[in-house]
């Protein structure tokens, strides 16, 4: 019986059949894919060409006629700029002083919200009017100035077209001779003392203070790098020198008053020794005032020990009043030590305009009580304010004096 010795010949028909089936399946799949793509294209075309049917109308209520909103006139808007009357008044008064126009609080009257200045003299000549307008416009863009007819008699200064200040100039007639009534003596000048604390650290600040045409009182710290030199410079410039005496504050030890300070835990002997040492370190000192000391100045026993030394050396004391409970002034008077009390702190806020307002407050107090004492520090803002307001502090009815002129003995 013959046999086929080549097995590959027997398997070949099976392999060929498998290939044919695979080709048929691929061909069918390709046909089906083409059919699906064509059907999708036809459906898309039909959908695009279908006429759009409007939805059924829904009955709605007729809308009311549109009424245009009324127009708001420009003058009805609230201006963003706020009037700082104190700052406006300060600029005006500074310009008057610069122009040589003297006045006092008796010449200023508030009538129906408008300040009226009754000024003895004519409106300053030259560029004064234009300079005033330019200065005011820098801080108050809505300001306007209007002179009366004939010009020079009245100047109205308005904000947002509302009068704020009216300057009434009253020049004397040419034939009128200003003679004081017989037997009437001009009243005494109001006196102001300005004590500058914390000196001895920066000689440049001290030199700036000494260059001012103001009789300032210099309070020098006893343990600073330039203590002795600062006291010598102030004395040679003719300024009164105090020892700025470090004393314990309520916030001690968080706030340290410095080396050699007077503290509550010290006995009277140590307090007297420390006070004597302070005055030995500050040459030419004629008195003292407290540096900090909000706690120590409430301590009667300690202040009595301080004043024992000061009385023996003929020194006086100025209470800075860093605490409302201070007994320093009363204890000084009981000990027979000449004393005074601070009225105004000028630079609690280190801002030039704020310091200028405090200077004006000091002037008001001085005119009311005939004297006032202010205390400040050698901050850059304080130096700038004092330099700018020096002319204001030299008015005819004012006098800046050493603090020793205002003591109670």
Automatic annotation (TrEMBL):
Domain of life where this protein originates: Bacteria
Gene3D superfamilies in the record: Glycoside hydrolase/deacetylase
GO biological process: carbohydrate metabolic process
PANTHER family tied to this protein: DIVERGENT POLYSACCHARIDE DEACETYLASE SUPERFAMILY, UNCHARACTERIZED YIBQ-RELATED
Protein name per Swiss-Prot or TrEMBL: Divergent polysaccharide deacetylase family protein
Protein source organism: Syntrophotalea acetylenica (Pelobacter acetylenicus)
Species lineage: Bacteria, Pseudomonadati, Thermodesulfobacteriota, Desulfuromonadia, Desulfuromonadales
């Amino acid at each position: 019986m013959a046999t086929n010795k080549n097995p590959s010949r027997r398997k070949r028909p099976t392999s060929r059949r498998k290939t044919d089936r695979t080709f048929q399946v691929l061909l069918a799949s390709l046909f089906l894919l083409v059919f699906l793509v064509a059907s999708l294209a036809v459906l898309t075309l039909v959908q695009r060409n279908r006429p759009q049917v409007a939805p059924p109308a829904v009955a709605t209520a007729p809308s009311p006629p549109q009424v245009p909103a009324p127009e708001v006139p420009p003058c009805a808007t609230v201006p963003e700029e706020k009037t700082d009357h104190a700052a406006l008044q300060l600029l005006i008064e500074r310009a008057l002083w610069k122009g040589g126009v003297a006045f006092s609080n008796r010449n200023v009257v508030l009538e129906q919200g408008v300040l009226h200045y009754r000024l003895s003299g004519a409106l300053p000549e030259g560029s004064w009017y234009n300079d005033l307008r330019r200065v005011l416009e820098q801080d108050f863009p809505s300001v306007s100035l209007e002179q009366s007819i004939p010009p020079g008699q009245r100047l109205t200064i308005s904000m947002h077209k509302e009068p704020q200040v009216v300057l009434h100039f009253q020049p004397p007639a040419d034939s009128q001779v200003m003679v004081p009534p017989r037997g009437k003596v001009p009243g005494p000048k109001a006196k102001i003392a300005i004590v500058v604390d914390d000196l001895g650290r920066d000689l440049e600040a001290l030199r700036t203070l000494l260059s001012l045409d103001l009789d300032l009182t210099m309070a020098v710290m006893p343990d600073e790098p330039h203590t002795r030199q600062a006291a010598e410079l102030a004395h040679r410039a003719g300024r009164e020198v105090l020892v700025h005496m470090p004393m314990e504050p309520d916030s001690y030890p968080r706030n340290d008053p410095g080396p050699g300070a007077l503290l509550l835990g010290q006995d009277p002997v140590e307090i007297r020794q420390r006070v004597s040492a302070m005055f030995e370190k500050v040459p030419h000192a004629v008195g003292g005032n407290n540096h900090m000391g909000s706690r120590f100045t409430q301590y009667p026993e300690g202040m009595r020990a301080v004043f024992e030394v000061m009385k023996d050396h003929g020194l006086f004391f100025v209470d800075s009043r860093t605490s409302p409970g201070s007994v320093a002034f009363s204890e000084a008077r009981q000990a027979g030590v000449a004393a005074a009390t601070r009225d105004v702190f000028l630079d609690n806020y280190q801002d030039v305009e704020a310091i200028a307002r405090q200077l004006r407050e000091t002037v008001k107090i001085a005119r009311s009580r005939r004297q006032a004492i202010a205390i400040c520090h050698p901050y850059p803002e304080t130096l700038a304010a004092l330099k700018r307001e020096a002319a204001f502090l030299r008015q005819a009815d004012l006098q800046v004096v050493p603090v020793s002129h205002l003591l109670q003995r």
